[in-house]
Amino acid sequence: DMTGRFTHTTAKFLEAYSTVATAPLEGDLREHAAAQAARLFDALDDLWSADQEHYGIRIRDGKLDDRADSAALELVSGVKAYAEIASVDDETLVRLEKHVENVVTKLYRDSGDGVAGLVRYEGDPWRRHDQVEEKIWSVSTALGARAAAELGILVETLGYDPDDLLDLASDLYSLLLNDGPFGTDVGFLAEQVFDDGEPD
Q: What's the pTM value of the predicted model, to 2 decimals?
């Protein structure tokens, strides 16, 4: 529902290039992929919002849209893959931790009666009907859980304490269980849920 150069796209290209760079391939493809991954990793600075202390949703017309976006949590997967081919500096790790914590904090909604989870992004207008604020999404909540878990594992391998991140992952994951706000009577997860608990 918008255009621009998105952080989540950068994240997936970083992950893809980094993965190709470790693949058992012959020729120059691995070297090319590693070089492209390094370019993307260096360009992450352009997506960082010092004011918000998280990575923005996109760059449009040369300007950073610094709203919080659950899809931008995919940066963790990208950086985790990049760590397999190059060293990740402490500043990036600190930024990633702030990114995960601040995006989850901004996008987390609890409307009461167990209806809680992450919205897609700040200002998401999708099918609100009479609801004033954004709806919670199961995919966004899962992205938050996975990002926190993956970052916890990454920082632990680099010698840092993962406990806060793993606790966050567990809390978000619990919302995706059968008895959580997204569970339906037939055993599926609803994509979106209104504040009153009605699945959309």
A: 0.94
Name the DSSP class of 71.
Answer: G
Q: Which residue has the tokens 């040369």?
A: 62
Q: What is the pLDDT of residues 79-101, one digit of tens each?
A: 999 999 999 999 999 999 999 99
Q: What are the CA-CA distances from residue 155 to residues 18, 40, 76, 159 (Å)?
A: 18, 21, 11, 6
Percent of the chain with pLDDT over 90: 86
Structure tokens at 168: 């966050």
Strands (E), the chain: 5-6, 48-49, 54-55, 58-60, 63-65, 108-110, 116-119, 136-137, 192-193
What single-letter amino acid sits at 148?
A
Tell me how far apart the alpha carbons of residues 45 and 100 are, in angstroms, rounded to a whole number: 16
What is the sign, positive or negative, of the torsion defined by CA atoms of 78, 120, 105, 66?
positive
Q: Check if the beta carbon of residue 158 is closer than 8 Å to that of residue 74.
A: no
Contact criterion met (CB below 8 Å) for 154 and 133: no
